[in-house]
Amino acid sequence: MSTFEPFEEFGDIDEAVERLNDTDSRVRQLAVIDLGATGRPEVLPHLLAAIDDPSEVVRLQVALAFAEFDSKEAARGLVKLVTDENEPVAKAAADGLAEIKDPAAAELIGPLVEHESAFVRAAALRGLRALRSPTSLAPALAAMRDENPDVRAQALGVVAYLKLEETLQALIGATLDPDAGVRAVAASALSFSSQPAAAAAVAAALGDHNWQVRAVAADSLGQLGQASVAHVLTAALDDEYWQVQLRCLNALGKLKAHAAVPAISELLRSEIPAVRKEVAAALGEIAAPASRDALMNHICDADPDVRKTVRWALERLG
Questions:
Q1: Mean pLDDT over residues 71-99, rounded?
Q2: pLDDT (0 to 100) of residue 205
Q3: CATH superfamily of this structure's domain 256-318
């Protein structure tokens, strides 16, 4: 086993480079760590040379080292490592690609959208999303028709991050995707638009058979801020999942939905403290005098967080 002094001087790059050729993989791994820790762009060619190391442990370390750099050259190495046969190496490279912000990296990442591996295609789209480059729009829209739901979800993420009204119809169409995860992403993505068609599509998603999609739809309706959807949220307070009720309550509070106060107040009877607390919070946000009696009935609620929120709501009423 080779012996060497700990790498203490960031300027001693040559010494670390020499260790990349050591026969001991542990020595090579530490050399990669030291080179990555410098943060200096001049070490990138040496890290690029190490992506073909026979040891998967060293290749994993190389993928992690590239994460210290935000550049096209770092992306060049990650693009190769994301196709590595070793799963941890490929996953580390995928995570690294998602951290790259250099727009020049798009031309390297883009071709991976057509890779034979669904994992690689999804990783490429995740990387493109972080770049927020308009050049990513066309491949992302095409990938929304991919056979793999993870790829479609990542493609939606690219489109959503760009926040372009021209993509509205594509996002609306994705709310009908056969995969619940994709539908949830689509419902969330539509929250950027002020168009009535977006609100209508998200409101429809509030009737999805998957409760997680319904929960995301409720969140999005609250973010859209269109009072016209308050009646849909009010009706959804009867949802069988308390998680959906919680998000509907939050959205109705944001919308200051006075007409929903009676239905909101009914949920103070819920056995779930988190729901009662959100009811009090929503009533406080709306601040309708008609909610005073319902709140007063829970000033001594069994749950301390509910009591605290009820007091806050009553203070809001004045």
A1: 97
A2: 97
A3: Leucine-rich Repeat Variant (1.25.10.10)
